[in-house]
């Protein structure tokens, strides 16, 4: 662990990410006020001892909403990365072991998915299924599939030609066993790094979709939705936009630095 924390990017990323994760976990059990509790007598109040981040146009406590929004962002990041990584790794391995035609078909399918960015995919999906956080996560997760599929394919092709794979095959091990015991453990590092970086991108994408009205729907707290609601009152209550925006920037920066730090630590060429 000392070697890990000697890396400045990793150390800062861990600190920033831990703050966000702690805030999300605490919001499961406690928030200063109910995130959707309205108080007409305290509408658009500036930050104070009573409301540390102020209140919005309905008198809702912004600190409580930012805390619950952190939980929403963490859930979105986990689910979207799980969708992209799960399907992408399977497709990448099938591409390597399935033969030339299978490889070509999967790579062209990846190219097709790359042609539909997350926002455009969300617009297409929500046009059919309606706007919701679930549909936004589905759209972002689908966009991540070719990212992990290509990374898995490139890493597995490198490992497939090594001597210990040939030795395992000569010893009579089945291809599935070779993949599970020898290939996956040796391509796990780049996948973890990519997942960490894509986690940050997923949070930013979800905030963008919520800002456009395609993500979490009112009254559920979402950082992007809070920015959308705050733009009307920027001249009167700038804190309504500042604090959700800072939360997004803090989280994305933290997980990006964490991913960069892991890349520097786990890549022997950079080390």
How would you explain this protein's 3D organization?
The protein has a single domain (53-266), classed as MetI-like fold. The protein is 73% helix and 0% strand. The chain has 10 helices and no strands. The chain has helices at 2-5, 8-29, 62-97, 100-114, 118-129, 133-160, 163-170, 175-211, 223-230, 239-266. The chain is elongated, with a radius of gyration of 22 Å.
CATH class annotation: Mainly Alpha
Total of domains: 1
Query: What characterizes the major β-sheet?
Result: none
Helix content: over 70%
Look at the structure and name the CATH superfamily: MetI-like
Structural class: mainly alpha
Give me the number of helical elements.
10
Proportion of beta-strand residues: under 5%
Determine the mean pLDDT.
87
What is the H/E string?
A: HHHHHHHHHH
Shape label: elongated
Low-confidence stretches: none
Question: What gap, in angstroms, lies between the N and C termini?
Answer: 15 Å
CATH architecture: Orthogonal Bundle
The name of the CATH topology is MetI-like fold
Over the alpha carbons, how many angstroms does the gyration radius reach?
22 Å
The total strand number stands at 0
Question: What is the strand and helix layout of this fold?
Answer:
Layout: H1 2-5, H2 8-29, H3 62-97, H4 100-114, H5 118-129, H6 133-160, H7 163-170, H8 175-211, H9 223-230, H10 239-266
Helix pairs in contact: 2-3, 2-10, 3-4, 3-6, 3-8, 4-6, 5-6, 6-8, 7-8, 8-9, 8-10, 9-10
């Amino acid at each position: 662990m000392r070697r890990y924390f000697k890396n400045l990017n990793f150390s800062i990323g861990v600190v920033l990410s831990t703050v966000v994760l702690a805030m999300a976990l605490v919001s499961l059990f406690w928030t200063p006020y109910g995130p959707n509790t309205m108080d007409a007598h305290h509408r658009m109040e500036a930050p104070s001892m009573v409301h540390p981040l102020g209140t919005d146009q309905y008198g809702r406590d912004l600190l409580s909403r930012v805390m619950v929004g952190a939980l929403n962002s963490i859930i979105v990041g986990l689910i979207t990365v799980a969708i992209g990584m799960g399907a992408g790794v399977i497709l990448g391995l099938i591409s390597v072991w399935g033969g030339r035609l299978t490889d070509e078909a999967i790579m062209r399918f990846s190219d097709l998915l790359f042609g539909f960015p997350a926002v455009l995919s969300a617009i297409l999906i929500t046009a059919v299924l309606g706007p919701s956080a679930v549909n936004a996560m589905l759209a972002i997760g689908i966009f991540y599939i070719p990212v992990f599929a290509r990374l898995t394919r490139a890493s597995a092709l490198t490992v497939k030609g090594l001597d210990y794979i040939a030795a395992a095959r000569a010893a009579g091990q089945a291809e599935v066993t070779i993949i599970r015991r020898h290939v996956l453990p040796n391509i796990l590092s780049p996948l973890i790094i990519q997942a960490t970086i894509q986690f940050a991108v997923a949070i930013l994408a979800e905030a963008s979709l919520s800002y456009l009205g395609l993500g979490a729907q009112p009254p559920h707290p979402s950082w992007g939705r809070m920015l959308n609601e705050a733009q009307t009152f920027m001249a009167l209550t700038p804190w309504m936009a500042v604090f959700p925006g800072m939360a997004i920037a803090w989280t994305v920066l933290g997980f990006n630095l964490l991913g960069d730090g892991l890349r520097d630590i786990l890549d022997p060429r950079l080390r």
